[in-house]
Structure formats: C-alpha cells, structure tokens
Amino acid sequence: MIFSNTRLFYKIPHCRCLPGNIFERNCKIVRSVMSGVTEENNSSSEVNDKDKIIPDLSNFIFKRVLCDFGQRKTICVEGSFADREGKAVIWLEKTPFSEEIVKKLSTNKSILKKEFINDVYGSYACQIDPNLNALKTTIIYPATEQHINKFEEKPIYLIEETKELYESITLPHINQEQFDLTWVYNVLDHKKETERIVFEDSDPSIGFVLIPDLKWNGKQVEDLYLLALIKKRGIKSLRDLRGEHLPLLKNILTKGVDAISEKYNISRNQLRIFIHYQPTFYHLHVHFTYLKFEAPGIFAEKSHILSTVINNLELRSDYYEQSTLPFVTSQGQNLCLEYMRKGIITPVKENN
C-alpha cells in the first residue's frame, strides 16, 4: 500500500478503539507518513490552543503504536507536536474503494510496479494519484491518559454486569471518570460542526442531531457511519433507559432512517442501528451503519439493536435497570482495575 503525499482529514473527536495486533511494518509506514520526524528535532513551544487547525504532520513526533488493525487497514499512534505542549493520539485509516474512485484510477498517474508474473496472474504495487489515496485522519489533542489507555492494546475481559455490580462499581466509576462531553454539547448547541449535521429534530424531549461519526468521511456509502446524539441531557447509557423514553427511541429510529434514506438512498433493511454498552462517552447516542460494513463494536458483547431495545422496554419498563448486561473492558483501565479489586476479574498473567 502506497501512502506518499497523502491528503489528510483533521478532526478532534471522542475516541473508541478495539484491541489489535501491532506490526513493525506498520510502524515504518507511520514514520513515513509523519515525514520522518523524530524526537531529535523536537522543540519547546508555548502554543497550547486545542482549537488551532493543524495543517500538516511535519511537527508530529512519533512515539509508539497503540493499536493496529491490519484487516481494516487502520492504525493508532501516540506522539506529540514539536510546536505544542501535551500528548497527541492520531488515528489513520484507509478509506474504502468506491466505483467512482476505481473509474478515476484508469490514468497514467496509476503507476504499476511489477512484483512477479506467473501464467495469467500478475502481482503489482500500484502507486496512484495522491488525490485518490487519502487517509482518514483523526487527531486527539491534547490527549489525556484516559484517551491513550482507551486505544492501547491490552488484554480484554468480558464482564457480566448485574444491577448490583452496576450500582456498586460501574456507576461510581462513570460519575468520577467519564470523558468530558464538551464536544457533544458543542454539536448540540451549534457551536461546532454545524456544517456536518445531516438531520436535526429540535424537540427538547425526543429530538436529536444526526451527524457522521468521525470514523466516516461522509462520502462513499460503503462505510456509512452516523451517530444520533439526543438533545435531552442526563441519559448516560442503555442502563438509564426506561419505558418513558420509548417516544425518544422510536423518533430516532423513524426519523433517522428517513433522513438516511433521503440523503444516501439506503433503506432501513440495509442499516444496522444499535446502542453500545459500555459506550465510549456517557451521553446517550445511537449508531447507524451500512449493513455490509463491518464496523468496530458491532459484536454481541457490545451492541444492542435499537428495535430490540424498544421491544424490551415495551415488555418491561425497567428492563435495562434490572437486566444483567455484558460489556468488555481492557486491562489498565480504571474500571477494569475496580473489577479486579473486587475479585470479579482474574488478571491475565504475562508470559516471561
């Protein structure tokens, strides 16, 4: 895969990540993308403005790979900027192919370098027009230790969380250490990202904002991924949902599907609509992804299909208050440490 002269997309996001394998090959690619910057050319700076646009990565100082998903062609790295104080996390992802891009490849700018030919099979490295070879790039700056721990590859554990475990361990942790929600309120209050809003229902009780997830560039539908951020504040997660919230959930389902169908020509039967538990940030939101796209966090221990959530609340108003809910946590996270202290998790012993 060729990454030279790659165009970059810049956002300041919430973060979410699943563990993956780390390969030295990817470390070399990342260093190449970062223009060969090393710690030797680092210089101090008093600039510490998180809202200042980062035009390129020439000042990025690579430190280490946090996680790597070879199958999805994504990688997450930790580092810093020579002209700014504080740590940074950068997420690099190859965007999917589309019919439009493939058609544009048929030019003399698509240079083929032969690797081998055997009978009718030829293997080539294709160096294409940089404008067709963009990396979706997400930058978290300044990054906290919470951000770094969230992305770093570590052993993971499945928790079967009862109502009692939620009230005694998980909820106190959420109240003490949840991620800052400023970016969410900026979107809801139209202070940031207004140009990215796909649909909005302004009703304070059942309204929401539909916006592309930061893992999606908002272009090709092959990896369509949108979030519905509810207008109502104070609903942290699936655990807080009751029968009284059915109008909100049904409104998101109906109007979210209609908005996506109108804008992207994708029907409800082609959408995966779900809620994460545990979520990455504790302001209730619903995920909309293209069904053919194997998005992160779609597995049984993480995602709850919205129509099923609605059905469960119709059967019993306090279903999610009383139920045992599974979730995954990773070693090193404070919530995981709390469950270890209580003897709920047995730590994995590292091999010498």
Automatic annotation (TrEMBL):
Give the matching InterPro entries. Answer: DcpS/DCS2 (IPR008594), HIT-like_sf (IPR036265), Scavenger_mRNA_decap_enz_N (IPR011145)
Listed GO MF terms: 5'-(N(7)-methyl 5'-triphosphoguanosine)-[mRNA] diphosphatase activity; RNA 7-methylguanosine cap binding
Could you tell me which PANTHER family the record lists for this protein? Answer: HISTIDINE TRIAD HIT PROTEIN MEMBER (PTHR12978), M7GPPPX DIPHOSPHATASE (PTHR12978:SF0)
Q: Does the keyword Cell membrane apply?
A: no
Q: Which SUPFAM superfamilies match?
A: HIT-like, mRNA decapping enzyme DcpS N-terminal domain
As for what it does, the entry says: Decapping scavenger enzyme that catalyzes the cleavage of a residual cap structure following the degradation of mRNAs by the 3'->5' exosome-mediated mRNA decay pathway.
Q: What is its EC number?
A: 3.6.1.59
Name a single GO biological process.
Answer: mRNA processing
Q: Where does substrate bind?
A: 183, 193, 213, 215, 276-287
Q: Return the similarity comment.
A: Belongs to the HIT family.
Per the record, what are the reactions this protein catalyses? a 5'-end (N(7)-methyl 5'-triphosphoguanosine)-ribonucleoside in mRNA + H2O = N(7)-methyl-GMP + a 5'-end diphospho-ribonucleoside in mRNA + 2 H(+)
Q: Catalytic site residues?
A: H285 (nucleophile)
Localization, per the record, is: Cytoplasm; Nucleus
What keywords tag this UniProt record?
Answer: Acetylation, Cytoplasm, Hydrolase, mRNA processing, mRNA splicing, Nucleus, Phosphoprotein
Provide the protein name.
m7GpppX diphosphatase
**A GO cellular-component term linked to this record:** nucleus
The broad enzyme category this protein falls into is hydrolase
Q: Tell me, how does this one assemble?
A: Homodimer. Associates with components of the exosome multienzyme ribonuclease complex, such as EXOSC3 and EXOSC4. Interacts with NDOR1.
Concerning Gene3D superfamilies, the annotation shows:
HIT-like, Scavenger mRNA decapping enzyme, N-terminal domain
